[in-house]
Amino acid sequence: MLVDGQQRQSVALALGKGAELVRCLVIESFGDEKLEALLFEKLNFQANVKASAINKSELSRGEKHTVARETILRRFGLTTRTGEKGTVKSIVAIKTIYNKGAVLLTQTVRVIINSFGMEGDSLQQNIFNGVSKFLERYRDEKSFDEDQFVTRLRKYGSAAELLHKADALLEVSMEHSKKAAVMSLLRQIYNKGRSKHKLPV
Q: Model pTM?
């Protein structure tokens, strides 16, 4: 199995230099896909390898937490596997949310899909981060109702519009990050028109 040097080999072939030697690392894995995946991860752990490549490798060898995250996403028609409908590219965000609890990831995905669907910017990293931050802060508040929250987000507009207004808010407020700005907007949307049972700042 070629575990290091695939890109160098591909470039050499593309340039018509297939007969020349390129530095590679080849290991006999005897067709063991789980071993191949583990070797890939170990070799590239210190390198700047895309999270998607590591995630794919972990799925191949059945890493339990990666499989658990994928299972949650699949419930809502999403996946971390590239080339499929509903592909989530913000793998780092998904992993971070999951590390705070499978329930939080499940609720975050449910709110996003039920509010914005899976098109456009709804699967963008700052949407995942902002919604999860909002839920982490307010889901246990007595005044919070998920169904009402989703209804208000549907009426609000698209995820793209939410992100655009978050950018504008960043320029004129004390919010220090895009996800914090998204969270602040979500609180405003939830509280708008309420005379009581508002979510606290």
A: 0.76
